[in-house]
Amino acid sequence: MKTETNKTGDGGSRVLCVVIHWGRLEDTRACVHSLLAQIGVDFGVVVLDNGTGHDLEGALAGTGVRIVKHPVNSGFTGGVNRAMEMARADGADWCWLLNNDTVMETPDVLRDLLSFANAGVATVVSPILRNVTGTQARESDWSLFFPGLALTLADTRGLLPTLLKRMTRHLRFISGTAWLVRVASTRDPLLDPAYFAYFEDVDLAMRMGEAKMAVAPTVRLTHFVSRSTGGSLLKFRYKATNLVYLMHKHGLARRGFKIRYALCFVPSEFRHYWRQPLRFLGVARDAWTDGQQKTVPLPCLVLDLNPNRHHNRDCLREGD
């Protein structure tokens, strides 16, 4: 593990920082350099190449970071699960799972995030996510519209910003952009491999239950939102099919689940679908049949979940 020798304020904890590379080399380079500038923490950096075939060795020459390559794209889910396996094998106390389109704004981000995490009991901790413009980000599949599931990093519920900054917020859901995960409190695989990408973080939150996720209100990180997938049709297909899988897996239709809206976030060439809202629901209903996930190019539902449903905590160790 490549380590930073200044350990002031970290409580002796070791952190493995894993940058999941997919998309733009320049984003990964910027993320890694901002990581290497962090101070006050015993940490290592691994860049996990998700089947891109990019010349990471050339792009990151001289940084000394470890590069691990997957021959095929295993998705965000596969990347996270591999990262957690590496953290466990390396004996790390925490694993910081980072999208490659994130940048630490100051050299004390990891130190402050780790101090916050060590002072609490949460299994997953996240900094506040900010857009490149400096505004607070609305993350993960318009999750602001999931009022029964989560307070997102963007949803202050009417709280004044100055008050919000002083609050420790335990949430039912945190976007998977920059999770700091307590390794000893989890078991492999952390994420359900069936998702590949999108809604795997929502699924994890539902399996963990309440009080297992927290946001550090004074720690900030910049996220260049959705650069890796952009507006591709593949992105919308995964959102649609995975949302239906989420509903199927957790039995949401039988546990107080309500369809509140039919929304389609689709490229301009698919705008004619807006005139057929009933078709959205039909596509969603038929997207999961006999346990087989099918290709559906439309994300279509925003959910209101019953917060009192049973949690399947198979991602946590016994007693957590």
Keywords:
single chain, 320 residues, alpha/beta, Spore Coat Polysaccharide Biosynthesis Protein SpsA, Chain A, 2 domains, nine-stranded mixed sheet, two-stranded antiparallel ribbon, 8 helices, disordered N terminus
Molecular structure report:
- The protein is α/β, with parallel strands linked by helices.
- It has 2 domains: 14-223, Spore Coat Polysaccharide Biosynthesis Protein SpsA, Chain A, CATH 3.90.550; 233-304, no CATH class.
- It has 8 helices and 13 strands.
- The chain has helices spanning 25-36, 56-59, 75-89, 109-118, 161-164, 200-208, 233-250, 277-286; strands spanning 14-21, 42-50, 66-70, 94-99, 102-104, 124-130, 169-171, 178-182, 213-223, 258-262, 288-289, 292-293, 301-304.
- The strands form 3 sheets. Strands 1, 2, 3, 4, 5, 6, 7, 8 and 9 form a 9-stranded mixed β-sheet that branches. A two-stranded antiparallel ribbon has the order 10-13. Strands 11-12 form a two-stranded antiparallel ribbon.
- The longest helix is centred in the last third of the chain and has 18 residues, at 233-250.
Would you spell out the secondary-structure blueprint of this structure?
Layout: E1 14-21, H1 25-36, E2 42-50, H2 56-59, E3 66-70, H3 75-89, E4 94-99, E5 102-104, H4 109-118, E6 124-130, H5 161-164, E7 169-171, E8 178-182, H6 200-208, E9 213-223, H7 233-250, E10 258-262, H8 277-286, E11 288-289, E12 292-293, E13 301-304
Parallel strand pairs: 1-2, 1-4, 2-3, 6-9
Antiparallel strand pairs: 4-8, 5-9, 6-8, 7-9, 10-13, 11-12
